[in-house]
Amino acid sequence: MTVSRPVLTLGPILFNWPTEKKIDFYKRIADEAPVDVVYIGEVICSKRTPFFEPAIPELIEKLQRGGKTVVLSTLSLIMASRELKQLRETAASAEVMIEANDVSTMRMLEGKPHIVGPFVNIYNEGALNYALGKGAVRVALPCELPATSIAALAKAAPQAELEVQVFGRLPLAVSSRCYHARSRDLHRDGCQYVCADDPDGMTVETLEGQKFLAVNGTETISYTICNLIAELAQLREIGVSHFRLWPHDVDMVAVATLFRDVMDGRMPAIDAYKELERLVTFAPFSNGYFSGVEGFRFTHPEMVSDLGA
């Protein structure tokens, strides 16, 4: 779908940050970040929900006053009856658009306008048209899709709003088991919320010591940080309308400003990339999936400085 101006979105916080930190984060986003859409809500682990959920209504109002469109994100894996009950209540009473990250949520929202999140596997034209036919107004595509597949989906459904993840560690899988808890010899039921120790995820290494992936509670994410700032123009050309940034424990207002400046033609992508290298130092950048190669690779070696190598 072609829109007059590319839409910059901020995905939900995937990590177990302290409640006050989340509140301060969203207040600053409301006041300062040049993003158009903000997703808010717990996506990874329902055990985290009671701590932050009471603050969400006030934050939604704050974000809306700041000119942001707010979307309520939901769990990516429904495993317990209480989670299902809570989801039904959310689907029935939410006053903002809902992002469905599980097919059970899609079923509950059937016939109502909603967004399909990147945790739902929309890999081909049939799946995309099925989701649109059930009421989806936007689909956030999975991170593994190369440019050729994204272009094919945009061509198959030119009326659809397609969203692509352009910054952040990429969500790869969600499990019923908690890797963070297991790493501390704990069970999920008695996890002691150790995932809070790693605000950007816990790095996982191979037996040879190579940094390989990262984990965030029950979620497996990429070790590298997706950075498609040099691909924004190409994404627009092939029909993508929405561009998602994943929140990290860095200056996300500055990150969003760089992406917005490149989108609006105020800054060359290579200059913005250099600034991102200075802002984000906990892992290297990658764009492999989009380029059709291994996800951890970065296909613009000419952009990488000694700082980001």
TrEMBL record:
Positions contributing to [4Fe-4S] cluster binding: 45, 178, 191, 195
UniProt entry tagged with the keyword Metal-binding: yes
Keywords: 4Fe-4S, Iron, Iron-sulfur, Metal-binding, Ubiquinone biosynthesis
Required cofactor names: [4Fe-4S] cluster
Pathway connected to this protein: Cofactor biosynthesis; ubiquinone biosynthesis
UniProt cross-references to HAMAP family, sorted A to Z: UbiV
Function: Required for O(2)-independent ubiquinone (coenzyme Q) biosynthesis. Together with UbiU, is essential for the C6-hydroxylation reaction in the oxygen-independent ubiquinone biosynthesis pathway.
The protein's assembly and partners: Forms a heterodimer with UbiU.
Protein name per its UniProtKB record: Ubiquinone biosynthesis protein UbiV
Gene: ubiV
